Amino acid sequence: MWQLVFIAMMVSKLLLFDFSASEDWSAWEIENDAVMGGNSSSKLERSAEGNAIFKGTVSLENNGGFASLQYHFSTKTIKGYKKALILLKGDGKAYQFRMKSSLKDKASYIYTFQTTGDWETVEVPLNEMEPVFRGEKLDLPNFSADTIQEIRFLIANKKAEDFRLEIKKIELDRNQ
User: Fold this and answer.
1) CA distance 132 to 151
2) Nearest residue to 34 via CA among 56, 7, 17
3) Which DSSP letter does residue 7 get?
4) What secondary structure letter does DSSP report for 5?
5) pLDDT in 10s for each residue of the chain, 176 residues
6) How far is Cα 99 from Cα 130, in angstroms, rounded to an integer?
7) Which among 54, 111, 133, 153 has the fewest CB atoms less than 10 Å away?
8) Are 50 and 144 in contact (CB under 8 A)?
């Protein structure tokens, strides 16, 4: 038994989702500002290579201003993992990567990253993810949970704009 525990501790990466290796994307959902009366629109498409393409238009009409793509799953234990690694190709715009320890939590923990327009691996230090609720930073410690149930990509740059984010894989890494 102790050998299995040791082997599990030595595994440095935890795959959260690999779009190009999965045919079933049914757990991924679009959630835009329409839930609050906004007019932003987005969709999820599959590229010829099998990657996810999250694209659409952010509108500021009716107090709108965001589009998001979320994935809910059974509780995953992430104790000991230090960062998320996201293989993606953006459009030069800023995006947020978000996590929730539990779907019951109000706060999301967010990390904003700038895309380059090229394929890149975005590294998200989990301990730098800040608690936010409805766009407002909360007076709580940064992310330190041992479990997660949601990851999300969100664009909300306070301007009307088209966007396109291609995502291949999301995983967690124990290494610094």
Assistant:
1) 14
2) 56
3) H
4) H
5) 555 544 555 579 999 999 999 999 999 999 999 888 899 999 999 999 999 999 999 999 998 999 999 999 999 999 999 999 999 999 999 999 999 999 999 999 999 999 999 999 999 999 999 999 988 899 999 999 999 999 999 999 999 999 999 999 999 999 97
6) 10
7) 133
8) no
